[in-house]
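[job 0417] fold request received: Carboxypeptidase-like regulatory domain-containing protein
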Amino acid sequence: MKKNLLGLLLNWVCLSAWAQPTAPSSATITARITELGTSRPVPFVSGYMKRGRNGNTADENGLLSLPIKQLPDTLLLSEVGYEPITVPIGNPPTAPLTVEMRAVTGQLAEVVVTGYRDPGKALMKKVIANKRTNDPQRLTRWTRNNYLRTEVDIENLSANQKRKLLTTMLRVYQQYQNDSSARTSLPIFFREQYRKEYHTRSPQSDAAYLVSEQNLGLQTDELGPRLDRFNVPINPYDGIIAILKTSFVGPVSDIGLAVYQFDKPDTLIENGQYRYRLAFRPRSVTENGFVGTVLIEDGSYAIREVSMQTNAGANLNFIRSLGIEQTFLPIDDTERGTAWVMTRNALRYGFENGLGLLGLPTRIDSASRTVSIQSTSVYGNYQINPAGVTATNFALTEQTTPTAATFTDAYRLTPLTIRERAIYQAVDSLKNNRQFRNTTRMAAFITSGYWDVRNKVRFGPYSSLFSSNLTEGLRLRTGFWTMEGFDPRWCLWGYVAYGTLDRRFKETIGIKYVPNRSPYRKYELTLKNDYDALTNYDDVLDNDNLFTLALRKPIPVYQTFLQQIRFSHERDLSPLWSVKSYYSYGSMTPTFQFSYAPSDEVVNVADSSIARLNTLCNSEVGVTFRYARNERTIILNYDKLRLYTQYPIWQFHVAAGLPLYRNTYFDYWKLSTSLSQEMPAPLKGSFYYNLTGGVVLGTVPLLLLHIPRGNPNYVADKYAFYGMSPYEFAADRYVSLLTRYSLGGLILDRIPLINKLGLRERLTANLFWGSLTQTNRDFNKINAFRVTGSVPYAEAGVGVENILNLFSIDAIWRLNYLDGPGAARSTRFGIYTGLKLQF
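[job 0417] inference complete; emitting structure tokens
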């Protein structure tokens, strides 16, 4: 019985196989798919064999290839934007088929198909292949107008909370209940600016001047210069996009195909023009990338629109997310044909709240109050290759004084929304509201460190009220500045300090005159009677602050008391070049052992009959030329602060000693040059280097030689040698290299639990080589210092930044010069901490 049943089953299987139509195992159908009426290829068409149940997707040239499993069968073709079509297949095809599909006008729904190719990736390859043509940065020269709106909001406020905070503004907001955002956010800053801008590609540089601006006239207007750093120029065609010194891989990057995942594109037809909307996201949540969509023009494969935001796993310190919306349109370029330019750039920063401000993982909900910054630029009136216009004469001849032009509706390249008009309506009520005035004044004080009085006088910063050192003991300091409300061009500034140990008052007073801000020009006269506690670098804390109070190394004090008069002049020669010149005369009295013989000639320092001095008087004149491309700057306290550029910065400095007076003895020359850069580094971080070389010509005492910057504190300082003490080394021929590589969380973001803290690792390596001529060795033999010789001083370390979104810690090892003279004041190993609001 079992044998009979088995035989029946075998017979049924054989009959079924014989009855099933088959096709040769190697049979393949190939189709070229074109558009009806135009014969242009239709890319990414989905093909499906109805009976064989197998499918594939056509390539970007409209070529489709499918294996045939059985015959007869039916080929089903479908693509978004086209009518579906069926093609009967009776016999194995002997030649490629040509199939025409009819286009459907209007936006079409997405079709989900099964295929073995990645049409989104194939489309992005086309965009990448054409980005050199479509990238707006490839344009040779252009000018344009820029209308910029910046707004700061407190988000997620309920009506009751807003009533408690500001009743008057709530009443104004009731005029536009149709705007839902009015019920959840409260603006504390609003500014409009109208600028004219110039760009040239070779050498790449940008120039701009402010025609007019309009603020609310509130205390928070002082936040404006500090908010400018958030208006980041983002180009979606860049492979690596730098956002606040953090690197992101762009979706149009050559390596973006490996970093991003692309969906199947949507096809849209508008006025007979085909466009593709393509969604993308990083393959890994730990990547510094973007999530969003791009709208791509058919044929040119240019980007028309970008809507994206930073990946949820991106490590941006206090910033929870950054949203980016951009629009591009084609214009005529007389040199290169059709070109694409940006017409709108909208950025929206959402900041952490609650414990998130301290870098601790926390969940945000609708009841949590947060702060957001919205910056929207609308560009118009593009002039391509304007005749006779250069970066220099554009900035010098066309600029106007910002206060000269009253802001009018003509400057608004896009009209105000209902909500934005209501903000202006509320200003008069806000100015008379004591609670709002006090709140905004305190917010400005905490953010800037200064207390302003009616835009007339500024006091501070509060970080320098208390500090300490071994010479002065507890040091108290308070400073002041006159502001633009007192005079827009003249500034009187100064400070007074007192030490509880030396019981001595110290003071500095200065006058600044700024006749122009664009291009910048400043004259300054300073009278100083204080120690050299301040730094020359804008982004480093000086020694006169609370943070260094308990972090001083156990080494002798290396300070110099200065009694000095100094006149300086600073100006922008062009958008690329600036120059600083100065003349100074005064005395320097070190707190450490120092002496010299008052003679221009080399003398025998062992001769006890020669009178020696420990106070050095000197007269010096100098000039520094500086070259920087596309540098972001702000003007604060009448000074132009250089914030950031991703391009190299070159400086050349020359100074000369002028023995003009009876107590100035030394005639010398100092020449130095430096190249520095903080550039985006794949895949997440940034790399900083500063290469400097110089020479001192002449026989001079220790204080006039080149003294590499040593670090007297356990405080991070990227401009100093961590393990070196001040005045430990000296040279009249020298080369130094300072480097820091911030990895941006490349490793720590991949460690479970640790990645929730947003920590970022970094590496440090520094070198210094210096030599001293025999005449300077003999002349300074009585003073204690070191010369490196043929082997450079070296140090290296590892560190972690973004601890609680505020602190950094670096472990630094000094690699050589550990023994011999001065070893007692060297630091072989140290843990250095930093405090900085850095994004």
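[job 0417] notes: The longest strand covers residues 185-201. Residues 52 and 70 are 6 Å apart (CA to CA).
[job 0417] exit 0
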